[in-house]
Amino acid sequence: xxxxxxxxxxxxxxxxxxxxxxxEQREAVIKKAGYNTFLIDSADVYIDLLTDSxxxxxxxxxxxxxxxGDEAYAGSKNFMHLQExxxxxxxxxxxxxxxxxxxxxxxxxxxxxxxGDYIPGNMYFTTTRAHQEMNGGIFRDVIIDEAHDAMKxxxxxxxxxxxxxxxxxxxxxxxxxxxICVAVTVNLAGGQPVSxxxxxxxxKLAHDHDIKVMFDATRxxxxxxxxxxxxxxxxxxxxxxxxxxxxxxxxxxTMSGKKDCLVNIGGFLALNDEDLxxxxxxxxxxxxxxxxxxxxxxxxxxxxxxxxxxxxxxxYIHHRISQCRYLGEKLSxxxxxxxxxxxxxxxxxxxxxFYSHIPQEEFPAQTLAAQxxxxxxxxxxxxxxxxxxxxKNGNQYYPKLELVRxxxxxxxxxxxxxxxxxxxxxxxxxxxxxxxxxxxIYEPPVLRFFTARFQPLSS
Length: 459
Prior knowledge:
Layout: H1 23-32, E1 47-48, H2 60-66, H3 77-89, E2 94-98, H4 101-112, E3 118-121, H5 126-134, E4 138-141, H6 162-172, E5 179-183, H7 196-208, E6 212-216, H8 220-230, H9 239-248, E7 252-256, E8 267-271, H10 274-287, H11 298-311, H12 314-333, E9 346-350, H13 351-354, H14 364-376, E10 378-379, E11 381-383, H15 385-388, E12 403-407, H16 415-430, E13 438-442, E14 453-456
Parallel strand pairs: 1-10, 3-4, 5-6, 6-7
Antiparallel strand pairs: 2-8, 7-8, 9-12, 11-12, 13-14
Helix pairs in contact: 1-14, 2-11, 3-11, 4-5, 4-10, 8-9, 12-16, 14-16
InterPro entries: ArAA_b-elim_lyase/Thr_aldolase, Beta-eliminating_lyase, PyrdxlP-dep_Trfase, PyrdxlP-dep_Trfase_major, PyrdxlP-dep_Trfase_small, Tryptophanase_CS, Tyr_phenol_ly
Family: Belongs to the beta-eliminating lyase family.
Cofactor: pyridoxal 5'-phosphate
């Protein structure tokens, strides 16, 4: 009999009870949270698919590493281990530890961006664009058009459009582009990867114009897996070999270690340029801490160093991608509109198609995330017009993709949990016609999706 899923390459040592609530209880919870899933207490959540950031279950080897934490203010041995791991696995010479990925984004933006500079990228990410704009940069999307089509089944929807990149260079001049930000994978496109061939050509075009290539490497191991699976010439290469080649086309990266580095906190900025590194070490003292610990404790650096090596194990990443694919395929077979192909860290529901009767200005994705919690206690995340926010002039962004992200934490849930999620969404879809949208009653000025509040429309 053919197996329906890839079994877990680990065994469970510790369990944590999770909340089983009634619909009546959940109605009170979601109302109190202003219909924003970010504002729900975790104690009121049954299956938490809000994010894969910091929600990883660490291994026994990582937990053992915590006991070897060297909490010296300067020169921690754990920093040496982290630096060695980054150089060995990613290939970058210098490592600046930060409290998480956005700390690295902040420092990179401050040391590279001058007011009026343009930062091209393969679709925006919320905090990345915020740091770029707060430091005077102007984001320009240069991803291929296929990425904005939820139903388009393209193997590398995260690819940079070389014509768009060249057009920006011609328009503003290379001296106004300090670097191109290449996300591997692209979160807001549905966890979509970038091909090795595209990375090579982007790198050549950028470096021909003295433009640096900086990776958002948060989910780079997932990207390496997709290259191995989908790109000719890489089927027989190891994840480690593919990842090292990927990173060789860049000048540095920002990393949220809370994803592919398999830890609950921490990140880093990795660089090859010594001058940029020196500038980064000056700023990390101001915003994070000493260059040898940044925003991290020694024990957390040790756990991250060990997690980096665990992440490139094929059996681990094969199971992770397969679990995500299991959920996506179950939904797709039931006729649920999702982003295709299925990404590496999450399944993305196409809320625009799911609630086709709800206009975008009434927040269909935010509505769907709230309804999913009401239905079953499953927490998810809006990735649509609320996340897109407003431009500097206060005008609303209207992204083509209006999505709900079902983000799967690493080594946390079983396939039975995925079945519960799928069944709940299928029930919602069958009764979708009676659902009304939301109106925003509180909007913060920056990154509004974290703390905005809503209420249901009555008519």
